[in-house]
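Service request form, structural biology core

Requester: graduate student, group of Dr. S.
Request type: structure prediction, single chain
Budget code: on file
Notes: please return the result as structure tokens.

Sequence provided:
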Amino acid sequence: MLAVAGGLAVAALLVLEQAGSERGHALAPLVLIGLMFVAYALAAVELQRVAVSTCLRLSLLGGALLQVIALRVRPLNGDDYLRYAWDGRVQAAGIDPYRYPPGAPQLARLRDAWLFPDGVTPRLNHPTERTIYPPVAQGWFWLVHVLTGGHGQGRGLQVGAAVLAVATSVAIVLVLRRVGGDPRRVAWWAWCPTVVIETGGNGHVDVVASLLVVVALGLLAGRRWVGAGAVLGLAIATKLLPALLVVAVPPRRAVRVGAAAVLAVALVYLPHVLVLGTGVTGFLGGYLGEESHQQFDLLKPLLPDVVVRPVGCVLLAVTALLVWRQTARDDVAGLPPRPWVHGATMVGVAFILLEPPYPWYALLLVPLVALGARPVWLVVAAAMYLVYAAAPLGHAYFGTRVIGYGVAALVVAAGWAPARREVARWSPRLAALQPARRQKPHSGR
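Core staff response, request fulfilled:
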């Protein structure tokens, strides 16, 4: 009953949060999102204790219902969906999306009152810049445009994202069953407020990458190295963030996985490169330059400004090396692959250090938790909403980053020691059992 009550609480708070956002009250939605995360965490923990079949019904059907509820309003967090719709429209007109910025006169015939209210000035972000989104994301925009006929003013993007969120739930269950995990963990994805708000609610393309990441890690856990690399490459060619997961690839398999990933990225970029050459990068360089000015804020109160960035980069590099070394140790010891555990460590630490202000970025972190990483990483996902609310609340990004990500870092650190002790206690047993498990199928033949 607690799990059902938690799901209903998430649904009710979601409605209130969106209604509060529509009325322009910045603080109320932030408080309600915090309550959503509390209700969700209590419900997800409770769901781990019920029968598997009951949990799967509640998780999958409840998650689908939450997506339906999220579809009741227009996107509220950001205006990315406007650019998605525009890029889809440009491609449907037979024009490469990386060729022109939205305000270019060559695209004047594609303008309408929704995206260009006065016929000249677009509602899109960065209207003077070419698109930033990689080719797989562009394929998604084109597909949604074609399926909806370009109608609905972005509603098709919300519906499509909601469908993919449910598909990701199914993929998580299939992967967990295949690797011998607990399929009840799917609740950590299906009911997560980040998933509900940022997919059905806001239609963010990150959910495409989430689905591809789940498939890639499932293949990686099954030791299908080339397939895993190809799908991971497609995820990277949707949003660049999945590149952080390369540390979850055992070093002995890195060549095969890496070559497949690079080939996949190259193939989806190739048609655009043949047309535009290096112009396919669009606004990527400018975007990375903008974001680089607001990173490593947690280090700024502790270090002189001149060394903040170098120290932050060193910390990221050290984290990657340590995670990759642990991946290698597991592989040498014959332990079952745990790409979601190692990937979550890399992604979580990177988010804490780089402090992105966009909650939808956590759509990369949530499926890793659902697959088997520690739920404590979801504190990072919750912290992103505090940072995102800085502007409407009239607060500086610096303060909200330090508070939000600082608290998240402390919570993660507090749970680190018990987790390390658990790993140390069980790893030798798993390593001792693993060779016998591999030999067992051959013993009777």
